[in-house]
Amino acid sequence: MKVLGLSGSVTLSSKTWLSVKRAVEAAKSADPKVVTELVHLGEYDTVLCDGREPSLYEGDTKALIDLIVEADALIIGTPVYRASLTGALKNVFDLIPNDSLRGKAIGFIATGGSFHHYLVIDHQLNPLANYFRAHVVPGGVYVHNGHFDEGKLLDQDVLNRLDQLGSAAVQLTSQLDKRNIEIQQPSIPRQKLNQS
């Protein structure tokens, strides 16, 4: 199983990055066999979506699309700007193939300056997951500036919820994998009862 952590912030030392990193580390702790990868959009030189087929992009844009397509589960975080996700992250959702998230587990994290935008997960991110027919991991985490001190995430409740989000992403993916295997296996025909 491959879990991809994606920070929708383009600021390299961001609260979003620290939060996503924590959740991805928890996913790895939940199952040491899990392969994890972290992507920070600030390190990728992606182009704006222009409507072409996703397979036709090149460079960092193609590499990012491939990472998302190959992931079994994702933990996606975004800072909240103007009561919404970042433009950089919205562009990622525009770039990826329509079926690239289908059936996958996605855990969401949003970060903001205050409590005012805690509903962004429910009103902005969960509907995107639904559009892509992904499974939202329950317990999305909203983190605000008051949870940090000198750039370190110190609020124990938030740390626990990030750990639970990472662990739940692995558990949900495992359950989805088992379900898909059961569905794909041929059913054994029932023997006809002798009627006399």
Explain this structure.
The radius of gyration is 19 Å and the shape is globular. The protein has a single domain, classed as Flavodoxin domain (Rossmann fold), CATH 3.40.50.360. The protein is 40% helix and 19% strand. The protein is of the alpha/beta class. The protein is built from five helices and eight strands. The mean pLDDT is 91. Strands 1, 2, 3, 4, 5 and 6 form a six-stranded parallel sheet that branches.
CATH architecture assignment: 3-Layer(aba) Sandwich
Number of domains: 1
What level of helicity do the residues show? Answer: 25-40%
- Beta-strand content estimate: 15-25%
Could you name the CATH class? Answer: Alpha Beta
Order of helices and strands: EHEHEHEHEEEEH
Task: Name the structural class.
Answer: alpha/beta
Name the CATH superfamily assignment: Flavodoxin domain
Radius of gyration: 19 Å
CATH names the topology as Rossmann fold
Count of strand segments: 8
Major sheet attributes: 6 strands, parallel
Protein name: NAD(P)H-dependent oxidoreductase
Pfam families: FMN_red
Keywords: Flavoprotein, FMN, Oxidoreductase
Domain NADPH-dependent FMN reductase-like: 1-146
Task: Give the helix/strand layout.
Elements: E1 2-7, H1 15-30, E2 35-40, H2 59-70, E3 73-79, H3 87-95, E4 105-112, H4 120-131, E5 135-136, E6 141-144, E7 148-149, E8 152-153, H5 156-184
Parallel strand pairs: 1-2, 1-3, 3-4, 4-5, 4-6
Antiparallel strand pairs: 7-8
Helix pairs in contact: 1-5
